[in-house]
Amino acid sequence: MFRAVVNLFRLWGVTDDQAAILLDLPVRTYGRWKAGEQGRIDRDGKARLSNLMGIHKALRIIFREPQRAYAWVRARNAAFGDRSALDIMLGGELTDLMRVRRYLDAERGGW
Question: Where are the domains positioned within the chain?
């Protein structure tokens, strides 16, 4: 799942510094893992990966065109106080990722 999220970050235009925040890892650790020297992922890390993949899945259901789904992450959104989903997620807490995922799940008619 880590490799899939690294690819997702590329599609979203997420920098390594931002990726480290989203995954709650030191930037150097993220860089090593991204290069293939992956270490052990703890429960929080697994939850972060799961939420990021859930966000991706919901966006792919909502938007037929992949580019629109990838662009949505950076677009301003009234539901987030005119901030982007990425801005919200960069708060760095697991609950920030969960907030975006819950919003998208509700939008797509999920939970």
Answer: 2-107
Q: Model's pTM, two decimal places? A: 0.91
Token pair in block for residue 49? 């990966």
16-23 vs 2-12: helix crossing angle, rounded to 10: 130
Task: Quote the CA–CA distance of 10 and 78 in Å, as a whole number.
Answer: 25
Q: Decide: 41 and 49 in contact? Cβ < 8 Å.
A: yes
In this structure, the dihedral spanned by the alpha carbons of residues 73, 8, 52 and 35, taken in order and rounded to 10 degrees, is -130
DSSP category for residue 24 = T
The rounded percent of the chain whose pLDDT value lies above 90 is 83
Amino acid at 66: P
